[in-house]
Amino acid sequence: MISMWICFALFFVVYAIKLCNLWIVLMAWSAGLSIYLLIKNKLPSAKYIIIAVLLALVASLSYFALGFRFYLQMPLSAVSCFLASLATFSVMEKYGDYSLIRTESKTSPLISILIALAVGIVLGLINLLLAKASNQQSDFAITFPRIILSLNPGILEEITNRAIYLAFFTYFFTRQNKPATKFQTFTMMFMMTVPHCFAHGYSVVESLILLVLFGLPFAILQRKRDLTSAMLSHTIVDLIRFITFGLPV
User: Fold this and answer.
1) Cα–chain center distance at 247
2) Nearest to 153 by CA among 232, 243, 211
């Protein structure tokens, strides 16, 4: 637990002095947690290894939409997403405190999708209002690059920057053989939301607004529903933004 706060303190120093790309720092942090969890829990089943490969491929290959200057990020994203997916699924299979998608009834997957659509559309509209408030110029178009790129944050950020912390604390709480304290639960939610929000490079106030409006809803979906609902709703938010305002430059 203390080690996580030390890692965040170092991350915040990098954020404060703008030392380097925060996304790369988060990928390294995620990779470290992933390797640790895989050493402790081993690989997941073959089914989840295949799913991890597919998620990593989709998340990394989507960078083709942004052109050559982003190609270096493809292998970094692929490796970090693959490791985080393996570790997340390994803990999930062993301890069962969260799921890729709920399956306790025949309608559970459909409910997850409907929840994701509702949350994604509402948050997507909020995101549009924030963009318009910042005087971002509209560039509406429905194109394949804009659609495919929206899968990148929906998969990569939800797995590498959020689910891996859920997996780590699930493992930590289970191993301590007693219920998590309020501070421990707060620490888990903090790590699932704050580093990812700061990585966008906004001011502290703007990052906190981002956390409340987007980080917390996605984290709650992961904890209370499933990983798929969080990934899908995040994808919808970015899809709405990319279709309306164009790809990031």
Assistant:
1) 19
2) 232
